[in-house]
Amino acid sequence: MNILLTGASGQLGQELQTSLAGLGRVVSVDRFPAGDGSVEMDLSDLHQLEDLLDRQSPNVVINAAAYTAVDKAESEHRTAFQINAELPAALGRWCKRNDRFLLHYSTDYVFSGDSDRPYVEGDLVGPLGVYGASKLAGEWAIGASHCRHVILRTSWVYSTHGSNFVLNMLRLARQRSELSIVSDQTGCPTWARNLARTSAIVLQLAIEAGTDTARQGIFHYCDSSVSTWYDFARLIFELAVELNLLHEIPRLKSVRSTEFPQVARRPAYSVLNTGSIRKVFGVSPPALESSLRACLTELDA
User: Fold this and answer.
1) pLDDT bucket at 260, cuts 50 / 70 / 90
2) CA 12 to CA 19: how far, in whole Å?
3) Helix or strand (DSSP H, E) at 265
4) Is the pLDDT of residue 37 over 90?
5) What's the whole-model pTM score?
6) Separation between Cα atoms, residue 164 and residue 268, nearest integer Å
7) Residue 119's pLDDT is what?
8) What is the DSSP letter of 261?
9) H/E stretch holding 158
């Protein structure tokens, strides 16, 4: 395959560069250099991006670029929609016009969090803030383009690089003896490497399926364990102490979302049902503890 990857310097993009290496040639594109042979580009410049697509003529476009600053999105509405909606819309139009395949990533934040069971792909959406609304607009734009595509909705992504909950918790634990952690938001923490490996499987099978619509559309992927932020933090600290990344576990105080004011509302329950991707692509999402241990072990290397 000839693959063009946007958002290559992000935590998912970096993992994708490795997982996609066996599938063909990967051209990495981002506003920051992402390795040898990468293309530095402002992804909000859609004319420049389209010129690059025409020159490279990839078989597959993978869009891992995203505006993920949930709170800042409330005041940076335009920027959030540029990256999360207008960019995927342009990619979808180009892929449709040139009969190419698009793999795109979305989020559990397209849901309101009012459910009492894991969300399936066809459940009613209802984002609570600008970030979720912009990601949902990106989904709709790709669907409206009628290109061949897969959209993977995921949740609570962490890795050994970038900005994420795991690294933030480790940093704060080295600075403070007590931490307050929200305990009334529930989701599925997902290691970026697991998502990248799944992406390679999905991409290969979707391409092999050609125009078979059973392997196109929206699918949910997250790792298999359900957790609150509080329980996730406790596991991070327990494993970090075991691996000598921390000397001791800080005192943890369980707080409700209302006690931890943030600009944007978060869904209280955003667990994603992965039954569809398991059935269609044969994927088996790993559990949290084994994945988190592997991730933290790399920090210790």
Assistant:
1) confident
2) 10
3) none
4) no
5) 0.95
6) 19
7) 98
8) -
9) strand 157-158
The Cα-based distances of 213 to 22, 39, 77, 122, 147 in angstroms read 25, 32, 33, 16, 11
What are the structure tokens assigned to 120, written together?
């399936």
172 CB neighbour count, 10 Å cutoff: 13
Measure the CA–CA gap between 182 and 197, rounded to whole angstroms.
30
- In contact, 298 and 235? CB cutoff 8 Å: no
CA distance 108 to 101: 23
| 41 three-class SS | coil
**CA torsion angle for 186, 168, 106, 204 (degrees, to 10)?**
-110
CA-based radius of gyration for the chain: 19
**Three-point CA angle 125, 127, 130, nearest 5°:** 145
Q: Please write the tens of the pLDDT for every residue from 227-253.
A: 999 999 999 999 999 999 999 999 999
Query: Which phi and psi angles does 61 have, rounded to 5°?
Result: -115, 130
Catalytic residue among 67, 105, 119, 131: 131
pLDDT confidence band for 35 (50 / 70 / 90): low
Closest among 148, 74, 45, 212 to 29, alpha carbons compared: 45
- Confirm if 281 and 220 have CB atoms less than 8 A apart: no
Q: Is 269 a catalytic residue?
A: no
pLDDT at 41: 87
Question: Using CA atoms, how far apart are residues 140 and 63, in angstroms rounded to an integer?
Answer: 15
What is the tens place of the pLDDT at every residue in 3-28?
A: 999 999 899 999 999 999 889 999 99
Answer yes or no: is pLDDT of 301 > 60. Answer: no
Structure tokens that stand for 174 in this block: 């080295």
All domains in the chain, ordered by first residue: 2-156+191-223+271-286 (3.40.50.720)
Q: How does the average pLDDT of the chain come out, rounded? A: 94
The residue whose two tokens read 């795991």 is 166
